[in-house]
Amino acid sequence: MAMKKIIDFMVAAYFSLVYKKLDETTRLENALIVLTIAFGFNGLSLFFCLLPIICSIPLIGNLMKLLSSLDVVLIVVAGALIAFIINHFLNKYYSEQQSSYIKSYSEKFPKALLIFVVVVHYMASIFLFLFCVKYTSCLTP
């Protein structure tokens, strides 16, 4: 239940920053796209932090050694897969009927707080992603 409230808050924060002259459904779709990118960075960070554990599995470890020269391809494929999964679940839960709920939920909080949360979340997501990629690259022989 707490995770639902956190995701509702994040959707409301991103929703409040979308261009106001659009209708509510379009604003919600745009907010979900931008939130998918931010959550995608978080998912990739988690993937790269768990990569040493994943590579300790014999079959996957051998496959990763074969693909070690394709690091960029791994990042792109993993990122696209994670973003697709996140976007699917966000769109499944936050349908068109949810736009009025998100609008009323975003009006409960001060605009400055929502802007602060969005900026800090985006910067922290990018920093965490870069840190995890650097951490993973240090582990490879």
Summarize the structure in words:
With about 140 residues, the protein is mainly alpha-helical. About 85% of the residues lie in helices and about 0% in strands. The chain is built from six helices and no strands. The protein has helices at about 1-15, 25-55, 60-65, 70-95, 100-105, 110-140. It is elongated, with a radius of gyration of 18 Å. The model has no long low-confidence stretch (mean pLDDT about 80).
Give a brief outline of the structure.
By secondary structure, the chain is an all-alpha fold. The protein has 6 helices and no strands. The chain has helices at 2-17, 24-55, 58-66, 71-93, 99-106, 111-139.
Give the helix level as a range of percent: over 70%
Structural class: mainly alpha
**What is the radius of gyration?**
18 Å
Biggest sheet: strands, sense, closure?
A: none
The secondary-structure element order is: HHHHHH
